[in-house]
Design brief:
Elements: H1 2-5, H2 9-21, E1 35-39, H3 49-64, E2 67-71, H4 76-88, E3 93-96, H5 102-111, E4 116-120, E5 129-133, H6 136-150, E6 155-160, H7 165-181, E7 186-191, H8 198-210, E8 215-218, H9 223-230, E9 233-238, E10 249-255, H10 258-270, E11 277-279, E12 287-289, H11 301-316
Parallel strand pairs: 1-2, 1-3, 3-4, 4-5, 5-11, 6-7, 6-8, 8-9, 9-10
Antiparallel strand pairs: 10-12
């Protein structure tokens, strides 16, 4: 109660509006007038989070016939300014493609009520601000199964950026999947404290290999380089990253954001958009596993079959990957 009473007047108003945010609908926008923008925290060529965002934006633009624009390598300090700039230029749907852009999106949304904003894994919503999650934790469970089924040392690794909810969910699911295959498996994890720091990610991954890990979950750019250097396997993320290490990247957990961005854009056009969490996962064919490029020969066939069965179970609704965002040491 005390924390609620100490909210600023503006935050109090936002909190009250949030009570109806999930039922509020957007004002229809003529398809020909829809312009979609996105700000991204890193380079669109990273073959990772930013590439997925950019590719999703481009796919939606083509599907809807909408004009699109983006700015890459955006810092938290510049996020709000850029969001406001796009809104002032008439972009009616704007994506803030980072967990750390949530406050910036919330501030901009308050001053542009006729613009629809979407912030990645936002902690707080508003009537014209929704969120979208990357349910790659579903794929992480599968990756954990594969890691355990490939490991010869009984130890696997996971290296990520910041302990945001989506990253914690990924880590816990990876560990749960690994333990389903080998209950005694040891899962090492490291958060490097940055969303994009390849040298630091590589250093953390090498440290895990030196502790015995022989399969690494690459939740950050630089981990695959470590796998190549130390001659261990890596599991890529977001896009098919095999080309980054043809002999090292066993497979990748992929995320196709195109269907989600397109659906959000169509909802804005139709006036049916709601402020809620939009999430497209394995069942929607947005999260999956990339080709093994022949490296599946390194995985126990029984484990490969178990992974296939698990994917089918998720799609059929008979298995739900646990969503655990609890903090870790």
């Amino acid at each position: 109660m005390t924390s609620f009473m100490t909210l600023s007047r503006r935050r109090f108003a936002q909190a009250a509006l949030l009570l109806v945010a999930t039922t509020a609908l957007s004002t229809p926008v003529l398809a020909a007038d829809l312009k979609i923008a996105m700000i991204l925290p890193g380079p669109i060529t990273d073959n990772d989070w930013n590439s997925v965002g950019y590719n999703g934006l481009e796919a939606a633009g083509k599907a809807l016939g909408a004009e699109v624009a983006y700015v890459e390598n955006v810092t938290d300090a510049d996020a709000e300014r850029l969001l406001r700039d796009f809104a002032e230029r008439g972009y009616k749907l704007i994506f803030a493609h980072s967990f750390s852009f949530g406050d910036a999106a919330l501030n901009a949304a308050e001053d542009f009520p006729d613009t629809t904003f979407m912030a990645g894994t936002a902690a707080e919503l508003a009537p014209n601000l929704g969120t979208y999650s990357n349910p790659d934790y579903q794929g992480a469970y599968l990756a954990g199964m594969l890691a355990a089924g490939t490991s010869k040392t009984g130890s696997v690794g996971w290296v990520g950026g910041m302990p945001a909810p989506n990253m914690l969910a990924n880590l816990h699911a990876y560990e749960a999947g690994a333990k389903e295959v080998k209950p005694e498996i040891k899962v090492l994890h490291t958060f490097i404290g940055s969303w994009f720091d390849p040298p630091k990610a590589k250093e953390a991954a090498i440290a895990q290999v030196e502790q015995g890990a022989d399969v690494l979950s690459a939740q950050g750019v630089g981990v695959i380089d470590a796998a190549i250097t130390k001659k261990v396997f890596a599991l890529g993320a977001m896009t098919d990253q095999n080309h980054l290490g043809p002999e090292a990247v066993l497979t990748s957990v992929t995320w196709d954001l195109g269907p989600l961005v397109t659906a959000v854009g169509q909802a804005v056009i139709d006036g049916t958009w709601k402020s809620e969490n939009w999430s497209y996962g394995v069942a929607a064919n947005s999260v999956g596993l990339a080709d093994f490029h022949g490296l599946d020969k390194n995985v126990d066939p029984a484990v490969l079959k178990a992974v296939e069965d698990k994917i089918a179970a998720i799609k059929a609704g008979t298995f739900e990957v646990p969503l655990d965002t609890s903090e870790v040491q």
